[in-house]
Amino acid sequence: MGGSRRRPGRTDRRGERVLGYDVADYIPFRAVCRSWRRCSVDPRAHGGLDRRFHPWRWTMLFDKLDWPDCRRFFLNTSTADCFQVGIPELHDHEVVASTPEGLLVLIYKLRGATVRLLNPLTRHLIELPPLTTLLPREFHYMLTDHCVQYPMKTVWGSGIANDGSTVVLCFHRLRFLGLTKPGDDRWTLLKYQDDDTLDVCRPLLLC
């Protein structure tokens, strides 16, 4: 066997176990030393929708902290543990919604149509099509500077569909769903009339 090939070692297997449990533990695991980083999977080398690196167990608390890097508290919904994460993107973005996978849907304050999906732990930032391709024209006023926070009040839910690549936003007050994939030019609009119809579509929001 050539000397350039490396067999998986204990560090590799330990990293796999840590990642399988919680990405919030995996990131500091990789930061221990260069050798451990080399022997473990780099989240940045994979797409932002790779489920292995989603902070499933964590939800962001909306209490704002007076820190220059826009720190926020995150709560582990299983253990009640809590830690702080700096999210500098919040200098010029608002959080529209959070997904069950622990990702944050952001809207750009200066251009309200711009939507991004952020993994707050791995720093993956995914560009999504502008909201002008989703909201009917009569609602475009919500994307002006003085109304940019209004979509936060109308987004009822969000998530990644079962296919692992489709992002779903539910505007319940406006009675429609928006579906898109990274790289798409526009959102797909799916209207519904009542909660019974939404129940039929609900599996789209399940992982």
Strands in their spatial order, largest beta sheet: 4-5-6-7
| Quaternary | single chain
Choose one word for the global shape: globular
| Tally of DSSP helical segments | 5
Weakly predicted, low-confidence segments: 1-6, 146-152
Mean pLDDT: 79
Quickly give the structural class.
alpha+beta
Order of helices and strands: HHHEEEEEEEHEEEEH
Distance between the termini: 42 Å
Q: How many β-strand runs?
A: 11
Described by strand count, sense and barrel closure, the largest sheet is: 4 strands, antiparallel
Overall helicity = 10-25%
Radius of gyration (CA) equals 19 Å
Beta-strand fraction estimate: 25-35%
List keywords for this structure.
4-stranded antiparallel sheet, 18% helix, single chain, 207 residues, alpha+beta
What does the secondary structure layout of this molecule look like, with pairings?
Blueprint: H1 10-21, H2 23-30, H3 34-38, E1 58-60, E2 71-76, E3 82-86, E4 93-98, E5 104-108, E6 115-118, E7 125-128, H4 150-154, E8 155-160, E9 167-171, E10 176-180, E11 188-191, H5 195-201
Helix pairs in contact: 1-2
Commentary on this structure:
The chain is α+β, with helices and mostly antiparallel strands and 207 residues long. Helices cover 18% and strands 26% of the residues. The chain has 5 helices and 11 strands. The chain has a 4-stranded antiparallel sheet with strand order 4-5-6-7. Strands 8-9-10-11 form a 4-stranded antiparallel sheet. Strands 1-2-3 form a 3-stranded antiparallel sheet, with no helix packed on it. β10 and β11 form a beta hairpin. The termini are far apart. The N terminus is likely disordered.
